[in-house]
Write a structure and sequence with these properties.
Largest sheet: 5 strands, antiparallel
Shape: elongated
Helix content: 55-70%
Radius of gyration: 37 Å
Number of helices: 17
Mean pLDDT: 81
Strand content: 5-15%
Number of strands: 8
Order of helices and strands: HHHHHHHHHHEEEEHEHEHHHEEHH
Structural class: alpha+beta
Amino acid sequence: MELIKSQLESYGMSEQTIGYLSSMIMIVFIALICIFANLIAKKIVLRTIVRIINNNQRYTWINVILEKKVFHKLSHLVPAIIIIYSASIFPLYRTLIEKAAVTYMIIVTITVINALLNAFDAIYRSFEISKIRPIKGYIQVVKIILFIIGGIVMISNLIGQNPLIILSGLGALSAVLMLVFKDSILGLVAGVQLSSNDMVRVGDWIEMPKYNADGDVIDITLNTVKVMNFDKTITMIPSYALISDSFKNWRGMQVSGGRRIKRSVNIDTSSICFCTQEMIEEFQKIQYLTEYITTRLQQINAYNTEHQINTESKVNGRQLTNVGVFREYIHQYLKNHQQIHKDMTLLVRQLAPGDNGLPLEIYAFSNDTNWKVYESVQADIFDHIFAVAPTFGLRVFQNPTGHDIAHVKESTEYSRGY
């Protein structure tokens, strides 16, 4: 500073101008030093550390610390340290500069410790014991304590008071604050839980029957979560209700790229039978069944021949059934369907038979999660299944309707000659 002032005096400037100009030059000089030091810390020191860690794969936990950017956050301390040591250059503003720099250092320290806790949680999750004894809840408690202590230390640094004095004052006001700001405190805690656990985001489709909510989240505030239902009504859910009660978030379905189809077709059990030779010949003409029928007949004939089974009676040995062939046809039809997700579960299974016949359940995923497209795909599939069932000699079960009763009555009258 003295060197700058003496240099400016040589130009014949006034004392007041020298004071202002030398301070401005010194501020610019310190700023350049901070920028240069920060570049050295990030471009040289940090890259060297990253290179050493990448070359040494012996300890995987170091890579986790690097991924959580602990060292990147730590590098922000360098400019603050330079500013603290430079504060003595400006005697009038020294206290203010030091307080601002220390406050910044406290914030950086909190972010570094927070990143370390995240890294520790990620490292712990790599062990099998984490599935039995999770520690995320404990880490969140530590984070809350860390933020509270950090906030108290920052306030005490800015006002120049002992942190214990602030703590004693907070203790006296805690009961009043809990009573007056109960909803806000509950909402704040719920908001921290929702964000830290990534439970809900704006744009998520959630379903919460208790509050008649079924739609997209359009806003998340301190106290409420706003949901626009599919009928365009708005439901306001308290934030803490999403923590205390259960709800369904459909984000996983949307992210996966597949939406589940789970619906059954009830087959009239009286229409189930063994396949005749004529039926088998017709089935072999169906594109999706040609290879299946040929392979299955070879297996069945080989089994019956090996065990010397009398095939004159279809009860003996192994035989094809029309419902079994129908089930395989549906499986091959879905497998070749352009709008069915090929990398997700695809099943055509029988459920327990009941009063409504034999349920044949289709369990598959469409490759488009859009509601309109999904419903169209599902409808097309079952349109085809209902239409093709008679080809296999099967009847889809339904309870008798007025048309059925009238048809029976007409048949009876006709047979009696009325």
